[in-house]
Description:
The protein is 50% helix and 11% strand. It is an alpha/beta fold. The chain folds into 2 domains: 11-30 and 212-284; 37-208, 3-Layer(aba) Sandwich (Rossmann fold). The strands form 2 sheets. Strands 4-5-6-1-7 form a 5-stranded parallel sheet, with helices on both faces. A two-stranded antiparallel ribbon has the order 2-3. Strand 2 (85-87) and strand 3 (92-94) form a beta hairpin. The longest helix is centred in the middle third of the chain and has 18 residues, at 161-178. The protein is elongated and about 60 Å long. The two termini are 40 Å apart. It holds the Pfam family TniB. This is TniB transposition protein.
Amino acid sequence: MKSTPLSHLLPATRSQAQLDDDARIQCLLRDRWIDYPRATQALEQLERLFVTPRRERMPCLLLHGDSNIGKTQITAKFRRRHPDVFDERRGMEMRPIISMQMPPTPDQHRFYSSLLFELGAPHNAAAGLAVLERLARNLLRRMAPNMLIVDEVHHLLAGTYREQRASLNLLKFLANDLRATMVLVGTRDAVIALQTDSQMVSRFTPFEVPRWRESEGFRRLLAAFERILPLRRPSDLAQREIAQYVLAASGGLTGEVSRILNAAAEAGIRSGDECIKLEHLEHVAPTHIQ
Ligand SMILES: Nc1ncnc2c1ncn2[C@@H]1O[C@H](COP(=O)(O)OP(=O)(O)OP(=O)(O)O)[C@@H](O)[C@H]1O
Ligand SMILES: [Mg+2]
């Protein structure tokens, strides 16, 4: 193979860029993490909460933003920083962070079932709510996590008014009972759901991950993508025309930016161009703007 300098890529991506086309297209499907300022701020905020000494009424966070903006990726990144450890002395696994999803309908029984599943606790699915609740609380007390993350909190709004109240009370009860910090994650609907309860509002600091706008930050994000896409020639994604196109086609959603760039990178590999051109973007993500 003709050797190219590949200086537009991160060192770790350079070896990938030497692989054959199919292998490189496979590489595009891998999970990857790109730092950007708002995510770094969110991670710092999570870290501050994580190290807050235990006390009554722990401060809590409501991480919100549109679907596909990257909220779950942020919490996943944070979890990787604080992995589970086996405590030899106690002979049990310590879980600094417990993370779960709100069930698609606000059903307390399902909530505790999911939580117990997450805690690795076998339980009788037919058990009553009070039993599951007690089991979950006892386990949480023993495991003493520093943080409980509940994702997809906007599902709470899917229920009737009564169910919403009950689910909110459940979250409030857990937040009070745990003596750990709680992080709720969801779309704008999660914010609306919490706003109906003044105690929750005072307890949970909102933190928004907004959509991208035309900015130096967005161009830096594109430049960061360019360094990890296994293409053999530079694309200069941060240039004005390309940045504007990707912004319009993605609606400013990180997930869409990632998907569009993957598809365009695949087109760049298959066509032999070995870089992303505007025509690839127009092909994989047509927009109606001129
Ligand atoms: N920091 C990042 N680096 C690289 N890709 C990212 C990053 N954040 C998000 N993405 C991309 O965006 C996609 C959507 O992210 P994520 O699942 O975190 O969104 P979300 O905000 O949780 O959406 P939803 O509200 O629908 O659950 C990811 O699958 C990934 O492709
Ligand atoms: Mg998510």
